[in-house]
Write a structure and sequence with these properties.
Immunoglobulin-like; alpha/beta; 8-stranded mixed beta sheet; 286 residues; 2 domains; Rossmann fold
Amino acid sequence: MWYSDSWKDYELIDTSKGMRLERWGKYILVRPDPQVIWTSDKKYPEWRRADAEYERRGGGGSWKENKLPAEWRISYKGLTFTIAPGGFKHTGLFPEQAANWDWFSELIREAGRPIKVLNLFAYTGGATVAAAAAGASVCHVDAAKGMVQRAKDNAALSGLADAPIRYIVDDVRKFLLREKRRESYYDAIIMDPPSYGRGTGGEVWKLEDNLEELIELCTDVLTDKPLFFLLNSYSTGLSPLTMRHTLELALKRGGFAPEKVEEGELALPCRDGSFLPCGGSVRVTF
């Protein structure tokens, strides 16, 4: 299990009956989480004074009793991010990923050479900003134009407006095929694909059916001496061990021999010392 205990501006306070109680800066949110199948005694007073709660209805939902501003900012180890609660319960940041940011940031800083990172399905740029702050040049790829703009804003807020970050709005698969033709290579890859997706032409794909192909396309753009490969997934249909086996086999077919491969579950620590599972990751170092 990997978790980050270094947050100051974020705290998972409690969990109960399908909901998580969180502090994002000075604001208290209650959001649904399908992993929370247990019941707590809800002893923390923040349950009764939340600034907003996301309520599911049918295939969607909305924020009720919303006393939140349209957006605000939180920081992590010198990095600053915009928080903006929107549809489908999300806030624009996954705080559990800080455990991965810390891991690869140390690798980048200690590499002793320039590192070129490819961040795929890069969302609002948490990993992009962390890698750039550690000294890497980064290619940030996401199909959603709004998310890429948010990533640019987060980089600027973190003092990285002029950092060597290349922002690409594109379908990941199509981008990888073009990079292969261009013979453009990367020392490290971060990949955090959604459980389900649609291509720019409306193509529907499911992660379990397409993960192997995506990884193999990634191996086509790895340098001969890569630094790391990070694979993350929130899909309940993929265990960390399944992800590890798929990644190891694809790397082997690509001619790569990892020095170390670890699979684990990301988690957020609660105030009472318990943990909330938040998806799986596979970390590969070469």
